[in-house]
Every structure is written in structure tokens, then in C-alpha cells.
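Support reply, case 0932

Customer input (verbatim):
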Amino acid sequence: QVQLIESGGGLVQAGGSLRLSCAASGRNFSTNVMAWFRQAPGKEREFVATVSWNGGSTYYADSVKGRFTISRGNAKNTGYLQMDSLKPENTAVYYCAADSAHYEIDSRSPRTYAYDYWGQGTQVTVSS
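Our regenerated output:
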């Protein structure tokens, strides 16, 4: 069974930091694009960041650029999202996703339909 398992969420004060992790099992995603999305209550799932297979290319939503950093683990089958200077509006369930058909990011990468594997999500709550 293929799984993407997120961890690292929690409660943090505004201005604080969290590091989310995404561990893949059941399939090797080391040659695929990975991404992070988030969904706040009552809102649609939105793009946060994406990274190419080797970490060489990244792309961010404007709202997180300069504060969040996406990366791959050394084995490339893990993903990370370092979140700094967190704001209350960053409160959401954060999801890891993988695109098993592509290794480089492109115009599809910020769209949910580009990804065929999803994790169960991890809650991030930022208090003011």
C-alpha cells in the first residue's frame, strides 16, 4: 500500500516556526515531483510549494515566498516544509502530495490535479 505520511504539525505562536515532514512508503518517489498544499476550514485546498525530484527546482505560492522552504531528504523519498515567521492565517491542514508521472515542476505543479498520491494531512495552528 502506497502511503505519504505527514508529521510535524502542531500549535505555535505567531512568528514561530514549524518543520513538516513527509515520508513515503510502498513506492519510491525519489524521481518524482513532490508538493505541499493546505486547506483551511471552509476553504478550498490551496497550493503552498513544490519541488523537483532532486530538489534543484522549487516554486512557492506568493503568500509563503520568503518564509517557507521546501526540500527533499537525502534519500529523496522524503519531503520537508520549513515554515518560519508563521501567521494566524497559515492555520490549516497541510497535505503532502506526489506526482508519479513527472520529475520536473511545470505549469501543472501548483494544481491539485497534477498529483495522484496524497497524505492524510497534519494540522498546523498558529495563535495570535
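We compared this against your earlier run and they match. Two observations from our side: The chain has a mean pLDDT of 96. The first strand starts at residue 3 and ends at 7. Please reopen the case if you see a mismatch on your end.
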